[in-house]
Design a protein that fits this description.
The protein is mainly beta. 12% of the residues lie in helices and 38% in strands. Bound molecules: the ligand Nc1nc2c(c(=O)[nH]1)N[C@H]1C(S)=C(S)[C@@H](COP(=O)(O)O)O[C@H]1N2 and molybdenum atom (MO).
Length: 388
């Protein structure tokens, strides 16, 4: 059912088929598929995944045929263990610098106002390694607003930082010239109080209409639309307010971008913790039917104004953005009909432009080329394809 080519049905003009198409679009969530098309796999396939325990599933770009990623195809990352949580016994603690500490059950959270967000989660490490190119997915998340809970707990005057503690734990060794420490540390990420209070943030218990699956944080995770994956803490256990900035493994050592920047003609080495998502796009797949070839893909990370595609060393061609369903924090799907490709191997590159005119950087742009770590790899992606 969800593979039905919606547009071709509309093309046939029958009211019944149009109604079916509308029904179908709610299921398939808009994708510019065509009748009878076949997918031509990319020549450059990702390398085998050497860390199957950490990265459990990845988006297979050629399989992408819906705006919303089905749960079973959604990528899953676990840096530590993968906890199994008994939802009946589970409680979320809100404590630290608050006037009234709270302890909320899953039933308590579900009884609170419901808020949904369609949000594309991307791991900031996506495209940072040859084996990691599918660390992205789009889902309709549902939960309850975080801000109201923090307000109810009453953050004290000196509270400036909100720490989201996961249930998962890892054994971490920190060894350098100054320190030699072994830790049994819970996954934890923090945000400033102002960032945490954003009305977009939800404590999420539902993903695409079903209970949050275990790989994605059952029973409850933070969903922070507009932030890279790492901020969206899964298997939540505790939310703590502190009076200093917080520097866990995932704030201050991993998920830190190291980049050479120019300032007044001097090189400045900057180290920044991964935060909000950056503009990015990728070609998803090339299909072919009787009408010809079509390149489709996605663009995300910021409000997208346009997407351009370059084939080989040709000029940038503007793609059509599918505007059937939109959400501020979800990817847009785009496509470009490829007129008469010559047989042989070709390259396909895409670049997204934001509504503020910011262009997704080329791979040789200093912002990418002078970055010495793999996170925040939002440079333009080139795929290779062989046309028979
Ligand atoms: N508790 C916990 N939360 C976590 C992680 C984790 O390992 N433990 N991984 C983070 C990372 S790196 C990413 S990219 C996203 C991925 O979300 P997903 O697994 O639902 O796709 O979850 C984030 N939240
Ligand atoms: Mo990530």
């Amino acid at each position: 059912m969800h593979n039905l080519p919606r547009r071709e049905f509309i093309g046939q003009g029958s009211a019944a088929l149009a109604a079916l198409a509308l029904f179908h679009s709610q299921l398939a969530h808009a994708f510019p598929s065509r009748a009878g098309e076949t997918v031509i796999p990319w020549v450059d396939q990702p390398a085998p995944n050497p860390v199957p325990a950490v990265i459990q599933t990845q988006l297979v770009w050629e399989d992408m045929d819906s705006w919303v990623t089905p749960n079973e195809k959604f990528f899953s990352i676990a840096h530590f263990d993968r906890p199994t949580i008994d939802a009946n016994a589970w409680k979320l603690e809100i404590d630290g610098l608050v006037k009234k500490p709270l302890s909320l059950s899953l039933t308590d959270l579900k009884a609170r106002p419901r808020q949904e967000a369609v949000f594309t989660v991307e791991c900031s490490g996506n495209h940072g390694f040859p084996f990691f190119t599918g660390g992205i997915g789009n889902a309709r998340w549902a939960g309850t607003p975080l801000a109201a809970i923090l307000e109810e707990a009453g953050v004290k005057e000196d509270g400036i930082e909100v720490v989201f503690w996961g249930t998962d734990v890892g054994d971490i060794v920190l060894k350098d010239d100054f320190r030699d420490v072994k830790m049994h540390q819970n996954f934890a990420r923090s945000m400033s109080l102002a960032d945490a209070m954003s009305p977009n943030n939800i404590l999420c218990y539902e993903m695409n209409g079903v209970a949050l699956p275990a790989p994605n944080g059952f029973p409850v995770r933070l969903i922070a639309p507009g932030w890279y994956g790492i901020a969206n803490v899964k298997w939540l256990k505790r939310i703590e307010i502190r009076n200093t900035r917080f520097m866990s493994l995932l704030m201050g050592r991993n998920y830190v971008t190291i980049r050479e920047e120019e300032h007044n003609g001097e090189t400045v080495w900057a180290e920044t913790s991964v935060g909000r998502s950056l503009v990015k796009s990728a070609p998803a797949r090339v299909t072919r039917n009787d009408a010809g070839y079509r390149i489709s893909g996605a663009a995300w990370g910021a409000p997208i104004a346009k997407v351009e595609v370059r084939i080989d060393d040709g000029q940038w061609l503007e793609a059509t953005i599918d505007h059937d369903e939109e959400a501020e924090f979800a990817w847009v799907i785009w496509y470009l009909d490829w007129k008469g490709p010559t047989p042989g191997e070709h390259s396909v590159t895409s670049r997204a432009v934001t509504t503020k005119g910011q262009v997704q950087p080329a791979m040789d742009d200093p912002v990418i080329a002078k970055k010495h770590t793999y996170w925040e790899s939002n440079g333009q992606i080139t795929r290779r394809i062989s046309i028979a």
